[in-house]
Automatic annotation (TrEMBL), chain A:
Pfam families: RabGAP-TBC (PF00566). Residues 82-272 form the Rab-GAP TBC domain. It comes from Oryzias latipes (Japanese rice fish). Keywords: GTPase activation. GO terms for molecular function: GTPase activator activity. Coiled coil: none annotated. The lineage of its organism: Eukaryota, Metazoa, Chordata, Craniata, Vertebrata. This is Growth hormone regulated TBC protein 1a. One of its GO terms (cellular component) is cytoplasm.
UniProtKB/TrEMBL annotation, chain B:
It comes from Oryzias latipes. The keyword Signal does not apply. GO terms for molecular function: G protein activity; GTP binding; GTPase activity; metal ion binding. Residues 12-26 have a biased composition (Low complexity). This is small monomeric GTPase.
Length: 351, 253
């Protein structure tokens, strides 16, 4: 008792010191939550900063004197190890093809903004403006510049540009992240276009068919790779949409820590949507034992909330290594085939 | 959605043992403590018993769903009921579906409400209506400051009739009743619509707390009454609601 008390005291002290040293805001403007573990964060960052510095030097060399980023094996390897934040916008734009689109279509973004506003679209977007990252200083009405206006513009322009999608909840968070990283509306717009138009299946259209299919695809993959978890899901009648729809729709925003999400997005822009499955499979596989303990549907839901936090996902650098090794092979052909069958099944069920 | 930026935020609930509920009438199993119990700064307190709270034990359990247009205040209503708090401007839009538990003591019986919060945007309905059929009760919300959320109630009712169980307990709630200046839907309009469809109605405010407890209590009482079928007690949901309801901007108690 006495001993545990003193250990406790020391830990509390260490934590409070770390709290004095670590900024209350993260580098992206998010307030740290009340239960933020400052001591662990400091410990983690002391290691990660070494990685970041090393990567930053390597990237500077790679990009030195080059006006354009070329996709090749070396760049892919570099991307998997993380793009330094100062180069993120540049590499995302180049790797996704957004830069080409921007250059081919000068003034297009502005023209979409100036188009006749669809009042229904405007209203739906407005409903979510103050509900997008209220814990981020850049999205406060009082901040200058306030990203809420930029967010509104990007979503409105995108809604006009792609009327079949218009606006779907979740896009607000994606556009928000893009603005935080690029600090530029037009770039965010074209990155949004690359994501929704090219990289992701149709997650955000009114029928959400791509989303529904990918949820089932994940189920099929889990069935093969982590069959005991699949069994738990089936025993308790848990539909995949219940536990993973947000993972796909929000591209892990607000599910995983900010830094981890950005590392995932580095690969998402370079390699495509397959990465979303690698992340899900790793998290599920790694927490198999915890999920198996679930005795009921609410238990399963709770387990899926717990598995997206903790050291596994906090240590983003090792996590990104794990996602390429732990789930094993996942070929483009497998994914394409599964997507086709799942999609057909859903269409048949819905008609 | 709760923010997940905490590094190594250690959840303490995973180790708490499941105890069978005392009466174990319905689904029987006891669920771990409410979501999101986190020990501060990840410090473990060895002298403390495993985290437990009243929500660990219950006699009967029911599923309640919150539905209605985007932005009418479903999550706020739930958080007000669950935690007694209104955190203005700190909510983010609900994507998909989520749930929270709350155990209420209804005339000596511990009734657990498993409350499902859903995304309001129309395209999400095809994802969420699969859950309607398991719901014992539905709270259908509109926003008294938003006419279109009120006009859409009809289409919500159609959706409910199509997918929910026939005997589902249904209640219509006009939320944000504290916003006197921005109000565009009169209380009488809500009452008229509710009467037309034969559902109980009240105005609520997640901000002030008006009728929030009552809405859930009324539902819990009705569900408990239905499941126990005690002939000695008589409970009429409509009567209970009209007796207990408070009116916005009025100090009648």
């Amino acid at each position: 008792m006495e001993k545990s008390k003193s250990t406790n005291g020391t830990q509390v002290l260490a934590a409070s010191r770390a709290q004095d040293r670590v900024d209350r805001l993260d580098p992206y403007g998010f307030e740290r939550s009340v239960d933020f573990d400052y001591a662990s964060y400091e410990e983690l960052m002391s290691e990660y900063l070494v990685v970041l510095t090393r990567r930053s030097i390597k990237w500077s060399k790679l990009l030195k004197g080059k006006g354009k980023v070329q996709k090749n094996v070396k760049l892919k390897r570099y991307v998997r190890k993380g793009i330094p934040n100062e180069h993120r916008a540049l590499v995302w734009m180049a790797a996704s093809g957004a830069q080409d689109q921007l250059e081919k279509n000068p003034g297009y973004y502005q023209s979409m903004l100036e188009a006749q506003h669809d009042p229904k679209l405007v209203e739906t977007i407005r409903t979510d403006l103050h509900r997008t990252f209220p814990d981020n200083v850049h999205f406060r009405k009082t901040s200058n510049p306030c990203l809420q206006k930029a967010l509104y513009n990007v979503l409105l322009a995108y809604g006009h540009h792609n009327p079949a999608v218009g606006y779907c909840q979740g896009m607000n968070f994606i556009a928000g992240y893009l603005l935080i990283i690029t600090k530029d509306e037009e770039k965010s717009f074209w990155l949004m276009d690359a994501l929704l138009g090219k990289i992701l299946p149709d997650y955000y259209t009114p029928a959400m068919l791509g989303l529904k299919a990918d949820q089932e695809v994940l189920g099929e993959l889990v069935k093969v790779k982590t069959p005991r978890v699949w069994q738990v899901m089936s025993d308790h009648n848990v539909m995949w949409t219940l536990v993973v729809s947000r993972w796909f729709i929000c591209l892990y925003i607000d599910i995983l820590p900010v830094e981890t999400v950005l590392r995932i997005w580095d690969c998402l822009f370079y390699e495509g949507s397959k990465i979303l499955f690698r992340v899900a499979l790793t998290v599920i596989h790694h927490n198999q034992a915890l999920i198996e303990k679930a005795q009921s549907l609410p238990d399963v839901c709770q387990a899926f909330k717990e598995i997206v936090r903790g050291p596994l996902v906090d240590e983003c650098h090792t996590f990104m290594q794990k996602i390429f090794s732990e789930p094993g092979s996942l070929s483009k052909a497998t994914l394409t085939k599964l997507r086709t069958t799942c999609r057909a099944r859903i269409v048949a069920e819905e008609s | 959605m709760s923010r997940k930026k905490g590094l190594r935020g250690k959840t303490a609930s995973s180790s708490s043992p499941s105890k069978d509920s005392p009466a174990g009438k319905s689904t029987g199993k006891t669920v771990r403590g409410s979501p999101g119990i986190v020990q501060m700064n990840g410090v473990v307190h060895p002298s403390r018993p495993p985290i437990s709270n009243s929500s660990e034990f219950y006699d009967i359990s029911f599923k309640v769903m919150l539905v209605g247009d985007s932005g009418v205040g479903k999550t706020c209503l739930l958080v007000r009921f669950k935690d007694g708090a209104f955190l203005a401007g700190s909510f983010i839009s609900t994507v998909g579906i989520d749930f929270r538990n709350k155990v209420m003591n209804i005339d000596g019986v511990k009734v657990k409400l498993q409350i499902w919060d859903t995304a309001g945007q129309e395209r999400f309905r095809s994802v969420t209506h699969a859950y309607y059929r398991d719901a014992h009760a539905l709270l259908l919300l509109y926003d008294v400051t938003n006419k279109s959320s009120f006009d859409n109630i009809q289409s919500w009712l159609t959706e409910i009739h199509e997918y929910a169980q026939q005997d589902v307990v249904l209640m219509l709630l006009g939320n944000k009743a504290d916003s006197a200046h921005d109000r565009v839907v009169k209380r009488e309009d809500g009452e008229r619509l509710a009467k037309e469809f034969g559902v109980p109605f009240m105005e609520t405010s997640a901000r002030s707390g008006l009728n929030v407890e009552l809405a859930f209590t009324a539902v819990a009482k009705e569900l408990k009454h239905r499941s126990t079928k005690d002939p000695s007690e008589k409970f009429k949901l409509q009567e209970y609601v009209s007796k207990e309801v408070k009116v916005a901007g009025c100090c009648r108690s």
